[in-house]
Design brief:
Number of helices: 14
Structural class: alpha+beta
Largest sheet: 5 strands, antiparallel
Order of helices and strands: EEEHEEEHEEEHHHEEEEHHHHHHHHEEH
Low-confidence stretches: 359-372, 378-410, 423-434
Mean pLDDT: 85
Length: 434
């Protein structure tokens, strides 16, 4: 037995047998309760379902206990150990991808396994559990609050859900009910607008597929040619919308959609996404590449809906995709904090409430011809920060940009920065006169 390795949630031991067999023991090291035990049980049911019906190379379970009522006094899993080269150790190393080691091998083999996993279809979004008759069915998630990172209860069953939008809006409702900050509520409201617009209508309902919860390079193992030989870390596995399910892009191909968090080449990742989409097309006989093609948009929205680290920045990036302007996104975010939809009394008949801009902002937007240079100087004097004004054929960009002068440097960008762990956020204005 090897010395223990400590992870974020588990302690792991390697067991090596004289006949060459290798097992891995995982023991949770955090406080354990009924919700944890139930979650572990559901993970095990799903993993056994996958291994019994596919050739997807996930660790095969040998023994487990979901409670502390056992000889070691802790819950545990014993599973086959996956051998190979971890993708995150070679992905960015061009010297490794030479000769027969080709990224095409990675994409083709990975897509083949994910298409096979997508062949397991379900009529609802939820967890998988074994029924008394031995069959497996979709049941509610253990707790919606746990899914959004809230440990304090009350914890209640969550789901199952019939559509993508029903599921994501239910998550947003949980977050909105616990949020009091107007700026965060506006970001949540913007998420709701995107939920209504961005997931493809054709993929909104069943069938749903099993997801790979942490579909990233550190959990993918390769052989010497770059082909996939193992996929690990299936905690939280369940049935999900197709665009975030089996044939979505792996996260290492979508990091450019999480701005400010990773130093990546967006154009390069875009080309790799096209390669992976083609691999899914070939593996599925042309049936599933339409699901994969724009799944990075929905998977990024999914992260934002659940409030993952840096989520306002993700919404800003999606807004650039939708509106073609980061400034317009922040204008919408500001407007949501003043409009009746979000701020009006919920127990009264809805009515329109117009938002009046402050006089100091209006004075910069309503000058006469020939005053563009004065406008630009006033903008600079107004502590624009990292913003850069752009002069167009119609003069200096005005109203939309000036709302940013008023709010986005001290407020909107600060809101994004706070949610991104204090990282510096910069913007370049590229807009049309408003």
């Amino acid at each position: 037995m090897s010395p223990p390795r400590h992870g974020g949630h588990n302690i792991a031991f390697d067991l090596e047998f004289s006949d060459g067999l290798s097992w891995l023991i995982r023991i949770p090291h955090e406080e354990w309760g009924p919700i944890d035990a139930r979650s572990m049980h559901l993970d095990i049911v799903a993993m056994e379902y996958i291994t019994s019906r596919t050739s997807v190379p996930i660790p095969r379970l040998q023994a487990y206990s979901c409670t502390t009522d056992n000889l070691i006094g802790h819950p545990y899993m014993i599973m086959d150990k996956i051998h190979g080269i971890r993708l995150d150790s070679v992905w960015a190393d061009p010297s490794w991808w030479t000769g027969e080691r080709r990224r095409e091998n990675l994409f083709n083999s990975l897509a083949g396994f994910m298409v096979e996993l997508a062949g397991l279809e379900f009529d609802k979004i939820g967890a998988l559990d074994r029924l008394p008759d031995g069959s497996v069915a979709v049941v509610p998630f253990v707790s919606g609050l746990v899914m959004i990172g809230v440990s304090e209860g009350p914890h209640e069953d969550f789901g199952p859900f019939n559509t993508t939008r029903e599921y994501l809006n239910a998550v947003l409702a949980l977050r909105r009910a616990r949020e009091t900050d107007p700026e965060s509520l506006a970001w949540i409201a913007l998420s709701q607008l995107f939920v209504g617009a961005l997931p493809e209508a054709a993929h909104d309902g069943a069938p749903f597929t099993i997801n790979f919860p942490d579909f990233d390079a550190q959990n993918i193992f390769l052989d010497g040619t770059g082909k996939v030989v193992g996929l690990i870390d299936w905690d939280g596995v369940s049935t999900h919308p197709r665009e975030v399910g089996a044939v979505t892009y792996p996260f290492f191909l979508t990091r450019d959609w999480c701005p400010g968090m990773y130093d990546v080449d967006a154009d390069e990742l875009h080309e790799y996404r096209k390669m992976y989409t083609e691999a899914v097309r070939v593996a599925s006989g042309g049936k599933l590449d339409a699901v994969t093609r724009n799944s990075h948009v929905v998977s990024t929205l999914y992260l934002a809906v659940f409030g993952c680290f840096g989520w306002p920045g993700m919404l800003l990036h999606m807004g650039e995709y939708v509106f073609g302007s980061d400034i317009l996104v922040l204008d919408v975010w500001e407007g949501l904090q003043h409009g009746s939809w979000l701020t009006g009394p919920q127990d009264e008949v809805a009515q329109v409430k117009l938002w009046s801009e402050p006089d100091d902002c209006h004075s910069l937007t309503s000058g006469k011809a020939g005053q563009e240079e004065e406008h630009a100087q006033k903008a600079k004097d107004a502590n624009v920060g990292g913003l850069e004004w752009v002069r167009t054929v119609s003069g200096w960009v005005r109203r939309t940009v000036l709302s940013v002068v008023r709010k986005c440097s001290p407020k909107g960008l600060d809101s994004i920065a706070r949610a991104s762990g204090g990282q510096e956020v910069s913007m370049r204005v590229q807009s049309t006169p408003g």
